[in-house]
Amino acid sequence: MLSEYEKQIKNLDFGQTGKTIIRKLSAILIEFDSTINSYNSDNYISIAEELDLVHKFIEILNIFEKIETQFKINSEDTTQLIQIYHTHFKTPVISVINLLSMQENDEIIKAKYKLLIDEINNLVQ
Amino acid sequence: MITWAEILEIKVKRYIDQINAKEEAEKIRKRKNRILKVIIWIVLILFIFYFFNNKKSNNSPKIKIGQELKYTKSAGDIELFQLGTKHLSKYEQKQTGYTKETEQEFIRTNIVSEKYFVNNSNIIGTIKDTINLNGKKWVKVALNKDIYKKPINFDLITDKFDVTFKKVNKMDEIYNLSDEYYLQISQVEQLLNTNNSN
Asked: What are the tens digits of pLDDT across the range B51-108?
């Protein structure tokens, strides 16, 4: 059985109008944000939860890439898309990574999380 | 996101290591518990063994060095033993791997019975020591000198004696006989029990 999140991804049709795509992407991001809040409710993110978040993160990142490509093909403005990326995707992801770094005692892993944040920050300028 | 994948790889490995360590600790704990149970059982068995043994020895009269051993009619014949070695026959030598003589063992050399104590003190002798041989306990007794004076063929009616108690120094096929006399522990206990009840 498909989860709400999977259904929303399946419903995404890149042939639709930019406005519709943005609306559907917003729904996916709300679901993603809801997942983050749910995992963070006990102030601890387990490995299983982190794995799931990574999986969702990569999936959404791919969706952003596809939408951006589509928008460029259709010569549509990507400003709103990039704004959504920064506000509703990058910010919650970085806050989660910060939380993961805080709950970590291993300095090597802490350093890697810092590097990861830098990577994400430099991903889309 | 190579970095995040790396982080997860390290964390998953650490998580697996933690599980393995936990399982190992659990195994050690179970092993320790098993050993503890075995020790408890051994202690329990030893305790039970000691308890019954102690109970048994409590029922048995205590043998004291220097104690006099008195004859009672109910004891019947008192068997006297001396330590010695037996010369083995050719057949016996073959059976035992061609050993000419046995190890030192107790050999019954004399019997004292009721007739030794008629018109005499009823003292068989004094306990000198106890020794273990081949898992059996024996009591060394210094015989009452009066026993030597009394006969084997003693006539109760005429009160005449013709053969007196003779210390055995040598027997056929038996060598190295000790001077001391020994009694079986069971016979000594029987005598002491009757001594105490009289």
From this structure: 887 666 566 678 889 999 998 888 888 999 999 888 888 888 888 777 888 888 898 8
Confidence tier at A2 by pLDDT (50, 70, 90): low
Which of the two residues, A88 and A8, has the higher pLDDT score? Answer: A88
Distances (CA, A) of B57 to B41, B63, B146, B179: 24, 10, 32, 29
Nearest residue, CB atoms, B7 vs list A57, A113, A120: A113
Q: How confident is the model at residue A98 (pLDDT cuts 50, 70, 90)?
A: very high
Over the stretch A56-76, which tens digit does the pLDDT of each residue have?
A: 999 999 999 999 998 888 888
Q: Beta strand pairing status for B174-175 and B136-143? A: unpaired
- Which residues are within 8 A (CB) of A40 and not within 5 positions of it... i.e. 6 or more apart? A96, A99
Q: Give phi and psi for B101, each to the nearest 5.
A: -130, 155
Chain A nearest-CA residue for B7: A109
Look up residue B87 and give its two tokens.
């010369």
Place of tokens 């210094």: B142
**In the block, residue with structure tokens 């179970």:** B30
| pLDDT tens figures, B99-118 | 888 888 898 888 888 877 76
Residues A118, B110: Cα–Cα separation, whole Å? 108
- Provide the CA A63 distance to its chain's centre, in angstroms: 9
Three-class secondary structure assignment of chain B:
CHHHHHHHHHHHHHHHHHHHHHHHHHHHHHHHHHHHHHHHHHHHHHHHHHHHHHHHHHHCCCCCCCCEEECCHHHCCEEEEEEEEEECCHHHHHHCCCCCECCCEEEEEEEECHHHHCCCCCEEEEEEEEEEECCEEEEEEEECHHHHHCECCECCCCCCECCECCCCCCECCEECCCCCEEEEHHHHHHHHHHHHHC
CB < 8 Å to A51, chain B: 8
- Cβ distance B15 to A47 less than 8 Å, yes or no, reads yes
